[in-house]
Amino acid sequence: MKLICGPASFKLPNVSQALNVVLYGQAQSLKQACAGEAARSEILRRRLDPAPRSWDLLSIALSVVTADFAVLREDSPDGWTREIELHIAVAEPEFWSQQKKAIEAALGFLTTDRWTLNFYSGGDVQPSQKEVVHPTENCVVLLSGGLDSLIGTIDLVTDGFKPFAISQTVRGDAEKQIQFAEIIGGGLNHLQLNHNASSPGSDEPSQRSRSLIFLAFGVMAATCLQQYHEGGRVPLYMCENGFIAINPPLTSGRIGSLSTRTAHPEFLSRFKSILEAAGLRVDIRNPYEEKTKGQMLLECKDQSLLKKYAARSTSCGRFQRFKYRHCGRCVPCQVRRAAFLTWNKKDSSGYVHDNLGKKDKEHAAFDDVRAVAIALAAARADGTDAWLDQALSYPSISNKKGLKDMLVRGLAELEALHKVYKVT
Q1: Angle, nearest 10°, between helix axes 400-421 and 367-382?
Q2: Within 352-393, where are the H helices?
Q3: From edge to edge, which strands make up the β-sheet containing 114-120?
Q4: Fewer CB in 10 Å around end: N or C, the chain?
Q5: Cα–Cα dist 112/405, whole Å
């Protein structure tokens, strides 16, 4: 599928049968898509001053996330892998054309689709401000409303950092993002942004590109800091436990369709290379890539604060579908429940499907529960070496032993959970 992405005035008459995506504005007809208007308005309201290439990067990310919504996997020949062709208006088309192959490869890894990107002049430029504000924070942290980002932000503040908290607002999480920003460190400077991607027809539910738009918001915000404008580098913290970041396919059938790559080291390495090529002085860091979720809970540096708010956080991959409750049975929910068990603290999160050992299709026979059980059985029978070595077989991963040890610990946490509920 082809998409033409740019301001409302951007036209490509030579590209036919394409979906027009209005960036930073409203769709002009029911046949158009749009994204980014609210984010641009909020950046103007806050009088922020992002670097030009970070704004182009945001335009690219908005185009990608809109395509991810608009192009249905069920319409592809194999029911999953999509062919997506983007024509994107940017401020520096010559530079981004040089990065075309690197971006396409990163997107291919992230979403398991085949991407083709073309860049043109005529893109929106960063908002012009009469008076700009350069926040004085010394780093950026992505605050999603999830448990890992809550722990990561608590740890940063406890260690003496002053983070600028950036949130991508998601229905059901916006209020807790605000609450977490208010209760950590006496209150953080907090910026909530939403891509507001909207397209005609049904939305594709898989949303594999969601990490890209969140990172693009974070990079853009990092370039607004005073530290950046004075020529310094800015750390950008994307806090994610290593087990979910690697997300090893639990069975052969989950290699593409059900294994996300939200904070995978391979994707982050590719993204970092693009930032370096763009001269964007933003250092993406995940301090927890060798930690399980259980370890993150145990080692959080403000246990009192964490005990009070941990259950308020969100981990579920189907949170909206279950009316803003944790389903209790998806892989992220199982990892969360196993982590609370490791932490040995009461888990008052509340789960729609609580008893994982119940012998029906909604519990023990549910696909995600069965997948974890199959992986645990295979590990007991055959060991983990071949499976985990394959999951870590990427050239950019240098700390294979540390990550492998972490994955083994993560499996042990899941096994303890399944034993509690007698999942067989």
Answers
A1: 120
A2: 367-382, 385-391
A3: 33-35, 18-23, 2-6, 83-89, 114-120
A4: C
A5: 27
Residues 195 and 59 sit within 8 Å (Cβ to Cβ): no
Structure tokens at 147: 């448990």
Query: Taking a C-beta distance cutoff of 8 angstroms, is the pair 132, 165 a contact?
Result: no
| 3-state secondary structure (DSSP) of residue 146 | strand
Q: Which residue has the higher pLDDT, 172 or 113?
A: 113
Query: Is pLDDT above 70 for 254?
Result: no
Sequence length of the chain is 424
Pick from 68, 96, 20, 145: nearest CA to 275: 96
How does DSSP assign 296-312, residue by residue?
HHHH-S-HHHHHHHGGG
* Integer Cα distance of 191 and 161 in angstroms: 17
Q: How many CB atoms lie within 10 A of CB 85?
A: 16
Closest CA to 306 of 149, 187, 87: 149
The whole-angstrom separation of Cα 206 and Cα 109 is 15
This prediction's pTM: 0.96
Q: In a 3-state reduction of DSSP, which class is residue 153?
A: helix
Q: Starting at the edge strand that comes first in sequence, how are the strands of the sheet with 139-142 ordered?
A: 190-193, 163-168, 139-142, 234-237, 282-285
How far is 105 from 118, CA to CA, in rounded Å? 14
Query: Average pLDDT in the 328-355 region?
Result: 96
Report the alpha-carbon angle 47-53-56, nearest 5. Answer: 85
Residue 301: C-alpha distances to residues 185, 230, 241, 341 (Å)? 12, 31, 16, 19
Decide: helix, strand or coil at residue 278. coil
Alpha-carbon dihedral angle through residues 404, 336, 267, 258, given to the nearest 10 degrees: 100
Least confident of 22-26, 255-259, 370-374: 255-259
